[in-house]
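step=encode ok
step=design start
structure_in=
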C-alpha cells in the first residue's frame, strides 16, 4: 500500500513526500482512512511506529483553518512528546496552511499565550499548562472538532488523568476523539468506554519479543542487597551510560542518592520532578556529565537518548510490556545493547509473566566476587509456560515451580 491509496488530498501527499515518507507504516495505513471517515479511533502503538503522522495527516485534512480557537487539540504527557508532535504537524501545516502551536510547562507563559492569540488551528499541549491557559481565559476549547489523546497509558501512570478529564469536559460532546496508547491496561479500556463513541481499534504494538540485539540477564539477589549489587555491577563492569528503572518515584530518588554517595554520578527523573528538573537531568545524561539516570517508566517510551549501553531493572515492572519498552532504550539505531535485571524472590510472578510475554527464559548470572545472601532465590528454568528457548539454557539444580533459594558465590548461568 502507498499513501496514494489512503484518501489523502494532493496537498497532504505533497507534505508526505517532502517529509521523506515512502510507504505508510501499519498504524498509518490502518488509522488514516478511519480518521478521514470521521470515526473515533483507538490505536495501540508505541513511539517509533509513525503514529504521530497517523493522526496529524488526516486531522489537518479534515479541519478547516478559521478563527475562533483551535479546531484540533492534542493532549500528551510530556514536553518532549509535545515537541515531537509539533515538529510533524508544522511540517504538514506548511502545505495545508494550518497554524500549529504548542503549550507546555517549564518555560515562559507569555510567549505561549501570544502564540494562541495570533490564532491556532491545531494546539498540542501538556495537561497542566493547558489548564493554566484555560483558567486565565487564554484558550477556548468550545470549537474543538477533533480531540487526540496521545500516550493515554502514560498520562494515567503519571497521575494526569484528572486534569485530562477536566480538559475533555471543556470540549464539545459532538467531537471526534482519537486515543493512542502503547498498552491497553484495564484503566485505559475504562477511559475508552467512557470517552469515545463506538471506536474503531487498530493494534500494531509489538507485544511479544524485545529487540533481538539486546543481551538480557537476570541477577538473582535478596532485596536487601540490591543497592550493593547495583553499585558493584556499575563499578566492576565500568559502565558509563546506564539507565536504571525503579517501580516508584521515591525509590528512584533513593537509588540515585545512594549511587551518588557511592561515587557514581547519578540523577533521578520521574513524574514528581518539574519539567525544568527533568530537562536538566536528561541534558546532563545526554552530555555524559551524569553516568546513571534513575527513572520510573515515564522514560520508557517517548524519549530517545543515544548511546545507552546498559539498561538495569532495579525493580521489575508489573506490566510485562513495560519491560520491553524499558530495555528498548538500549540497542538503538542498529547497535547492540545489554539489559540486566536485579531479581528478588518477591518478584517471581513478574518475571514469570515477562518471560511468558517475550517467549523465552532469561539467563541467570552472578557477579564475580559478590557475597550473596542466603535469602535470594534463583529461578528455575523449568517453570510452566516458558518453553521457547529452554533447550538453550543450562538447567539449574532443583525442580520447584517457584525456583530455589541459593546463597554464596556459585554461578547461576554465566559470570561477568
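sequence_out=
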Amino acid at each position: 500500500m502507498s499513501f496514494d491509496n489512503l484518501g489523502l488530498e494532493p496537498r497532504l501527499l505533497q507534505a508526505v513526500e517532502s517529509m521523506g515518507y515512502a510507504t505508510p507504516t501499519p498504524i498509518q495505513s490502518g488509522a488514516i482512512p478511519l480518521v478521514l471517515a470521521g470515526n473515533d479511533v483507538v490505536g495501540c502503538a508505541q513511539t517509533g511506529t509513525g503514529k504521530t503522522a497517523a493522526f496529524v495527516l488526516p486531522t489537518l485534512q479534515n479541519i478547516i483553518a478559521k478563527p475562533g480557537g483551535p479546531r484540533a487539540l492534542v493532549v500528551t504527557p510530556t514536553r518532549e512528546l509535545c515537541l515531537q508532535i509539533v515538529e510533524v504537524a508544522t511540517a504538514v501545516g506548511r502545505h495545508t496552511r494550518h497554524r500549529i502551536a504548542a503549550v507546555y510547562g517549564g518555560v515562559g507563559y507569555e510567549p505561549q499565550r501570544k502564540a494562541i492569540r495570533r490564532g491556532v488551528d491545531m494546539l498540542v499541549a501538556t495537561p497542566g499548562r493547558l489548564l493554566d491557559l484555560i483558567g486565565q481565559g487564554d484558550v477556548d476549547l468550545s470549537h474543538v472538532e477533533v480531540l487526540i489523546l496521545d500516550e493515554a497509558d502514560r498520562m494515567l501512570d503519571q497521575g494526569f488523568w484528572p486534569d485530562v478529564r477536566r480538559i475533555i469536559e471543556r470540549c464539545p460532546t459532538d467531537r471526534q476523539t482519537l486515543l493512542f496508547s502503547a498498552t491497553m491496561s484495564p484503566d485505559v479500556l475504562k477511559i475508552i468506554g467512557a470517552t469515545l463513541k463506538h471506536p474503531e481499534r487498530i493494534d500494531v504494538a509489538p507485544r511479544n519479543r524485545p529487540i533481538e540485539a539486546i543481551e538480557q540477564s537476570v541477577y538473582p539477589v535478596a532485596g536487601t542487597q540490591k543497592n550493593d549489587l547495583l553499585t558493584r555491577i556499575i563499578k566492576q563492569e565500568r559502565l558509563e551510560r546506564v539507565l536504571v528503572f525503579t517501580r516508584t518515584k521515591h525509590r528512584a530518588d533513593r537509588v540515585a542518592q545512594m549511587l551518588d554517595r557511592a561515587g557514581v554520578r547519578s540523577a533521578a527523573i520521574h513524574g514528581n520532578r518539574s519539567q525544568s528538573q527533568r530537562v536538566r537531568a536528561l541534558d546532563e545524561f545526554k552530555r555524559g556529565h551524569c553516568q546513571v539516570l534513575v527513572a520510573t517508566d515515564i522514560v520508557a517510551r517517548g524519549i530517545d537518548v543515544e548511546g545507552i549501553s546498559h539498561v538495569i531493572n532495579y525493580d521489575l515492572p508489573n506490566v510485562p510490556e513495560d519491560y520491553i519498552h524499558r530495555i528498548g532504550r538500549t540497542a538503538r539505531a542498529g547497535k547492540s545493547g545489554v539489559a540486566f535485571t536485579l531479581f528478588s524472590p518477591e518478584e517471581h510472578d513478574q518475571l514469570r509473566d515477562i518471560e511468558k510475554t517475550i517467549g523465552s527464559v532469561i539467563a541467570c548470572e552472578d557477579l564475580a566476587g559478590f557475597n550473596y545472601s542466603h535469602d535470594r532465590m534463583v529461578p528455575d528454568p523449568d517453570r510452566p509456560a516458558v518453553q521457547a528457548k529452554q533447550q538453550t539454557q543450562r538447567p539449574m539444580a532443583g525442580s520447584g515451580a517457584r525456583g530455589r533459594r541459593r546463597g554464596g558465590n556459585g554461578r547461576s548461568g554465566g559470570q561477568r
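step=design ok
step=annotate ok -> The radius of gyration is 23 Å.
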